[in-house]
Every structure is written in structure tokens, then in C-alpha cells.
Amino acid sequence: MKELTTKKLKKMSKAGLIALADELATRLQWLHSTGKDESDPESYKRLALELYHVAELIEEKKKHKVKNNYTKNQ
């Protein structure tokens, strides 16, 4: 997986961010099911924080879209 900075993530579409979040969630679930969360907690925590960050950006895009639609309707 290529390295993505916050700047690159903010430029991604909402659909792209959702796809990335799904991929991160799948990897996180795999780490948990194989017991890597206990044997390698640092990588597990890092992946969980990356997923959280992507989720925050998705929510930000949703709020931004609602705000833009509201101002256009007036």
C-alpha cells in the first residue's frame, strides 16, 4: 500500500475514502483474528488510528456536502 498523507487523503473523493476505509477495516479485522493485536500491538494501534483518521475525513466531507447543498437551496 502506498503512503498517503493527510493532504492526499483530503483530495480523494468520498467514494475513494470509503474504499480505503473498507480496506483498512479488513486489514484490522485480519490482524485481530490472527492474534496480531496482542503479539504486535504497535502495528495494530497504528492501523486503527489510520482507520479513525480516514473515518474523520469521510465525516468532514459529508458535513461539507450538506453545508454546500443547504446554501445553494436558499
Descriptive overview:
Helices cover 85% and strands 0% of the residues. With 74 residues, the protein is an all-alpha fold. α2 packs antiparallel against α4. It is elongated.
Give the gist of this structure.
The chain is mainly alpha-helical and 74 residues long. Helix content is 85%, strand content 0%.
Helices, strands, pairings?
Blueprint: H1 6-11, H2 14-33, H3 36-39, H4 41-73
Helix pairs in contact: 2-4
Helix and strand succession?
HHHH
| Rg, Cα atoms, Å | 15 Å
Q: Main sheet? A: none
Shape: elongated
The helix-and-strand class reads: mainly alpha
Number of helices: 4
| N- and C-termini, Cα separation | 43 Å
Instruction: Pick out the low-confidence regions.
Output: none
Beta content: under 5%
Q: Helicity, in percent?
A: over 70%
| Average pLDDT score | 87
The total beta strand count reads 0
